[in-house]
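Students often ask why inverse folding is considered easier than folding. One informal answer: many sequences map to the same fold, so there is more than one right answer. In these notes we will look at a single instance of the problem. The structure comes first.
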């Protein structure tokens, strides 16, 4: 089996190793951040910004950090503990072997995200960055409200070639614990071994939670193969890690609006500074999995898009930085305005 084009058949073994590691990695990272040390996280810069900064902005959430590889860790081992998908983590670290990164290697964790454009309400799914954003309703004022994140973000698995996830607007019409899977006729035609009904349990690909959309046969659900999160492996549904779908399931209500977009290029403000975040397109994700790197290209409409978004601040754009960010497509917010 190729290490790069890994099979999901070995997911239970790898997932168990990840979960055993998860608590240790989280605690170590937290202690390092609080102590201001650099053994697991650092403050190296991308585009002149420290990676460890937390963005205080309506347009960007989270904080970029880094992690130093310990022992036999692979990039796949880091995905669940840090709530990342496989492809987004590999894209953020071009040229690093995801299976043998090397002890002591510093890995960029792309845990800051420019929010997709458009209305910020309900659930917004961006296929390009393979993430789901849940915008909580405004909370009452007070200490508890201020400590509660206004936006939750989850890595997702999306539709593979021939089974694309539709774009547009819909709503959550039903919620179910321990869902039953009824494979569609087309799914059974592709795989005749599929039964007509798959009851709840470890063999059910829907996992233990499902949110049914207004689009027939499309769901947001968990998974029994967590290694598929952050990759194009589904038949069009949106899959989350088990812990992700449980949290989303508990927080969302029937009727919650859902909007699906495909935005590989995102722009957002932090004060007077403009940030650019560029991801591989859906078609380029296979190249990431096979080679770990992308061909350097520049989106055709990059310059007019940035000019329009920047408005009166466009004279401050550092176009060399903007073009580099677009060519690399690492999925990391980078400041593209000069001081």
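Output (designed amino acids):
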């Amino acid at each position: 089996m190729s290490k790069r084009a890994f099979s999901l058949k070995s997911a239970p073994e790898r997932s168990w190793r990840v979960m055993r590691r998860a608590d240790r990695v989280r605690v170590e990272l937290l202690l390092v951040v609080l102590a201001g040390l650099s053994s697991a996280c650092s403050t190296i810069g991308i585009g002149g910004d420290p990676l460890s900064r937390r963005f205080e902005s309506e347009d960007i959430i989270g904080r970029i950090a880094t992690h130093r590889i310990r022992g036999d860790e692979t990039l796949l081992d880091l995905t669940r503990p840090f709530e990342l998908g496989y492809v987004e983590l590999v894209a953020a670290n071009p040229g690093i072997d995801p299976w043998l990164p090397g002890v002591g290697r510093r890995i960029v964790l792309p845990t800051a995200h420019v929010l997709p454009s458009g209305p910020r309400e309900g659930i917004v799914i961006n296929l390009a960055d393979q993430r789901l954003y849940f915008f909580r309703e405004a909370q009452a004022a007070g200490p508890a409200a201020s400590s509660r994140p206004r936006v939750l973000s989850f890595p997702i698995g999306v539709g593979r070639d021939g089974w694309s996830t539709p774009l547009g607007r819909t709503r959550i019409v039903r919620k179910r614990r321990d869902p039953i899977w009824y494979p569609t006729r087309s799914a059974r035609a592709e795989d005749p071994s599929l039964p007509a009904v798959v009851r709840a349990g470890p063999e059910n690909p829907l996992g233990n939670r499902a949110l049914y959309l207004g689009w027939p046969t499309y769901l947001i659900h968990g998974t029994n193969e967590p290694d598929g999160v952050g990759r194009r492996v589904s038949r069009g549904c949106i899959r989350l890690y088990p812990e992700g779908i449980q949290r989303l399931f508990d927080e969302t209500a029937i009727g919650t609006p859902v909007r699906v977009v495909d935005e590989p290029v995102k722009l957002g403000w932090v004060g007077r500074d403009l940030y650019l975040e560029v991801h591989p397109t859906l078609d380029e994700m296979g190249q990431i999995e096979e080679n770990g790197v992308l061909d350097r290209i520049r989106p055709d409409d990059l310059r007019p898009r940035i000019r329009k978004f920047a408005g009166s601040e466009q004279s401050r754009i550092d176009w060399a930085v903007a073009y580099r960010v677009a060519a690399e497509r690492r999925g990391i917010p980078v400041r593209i305005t000069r001081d």
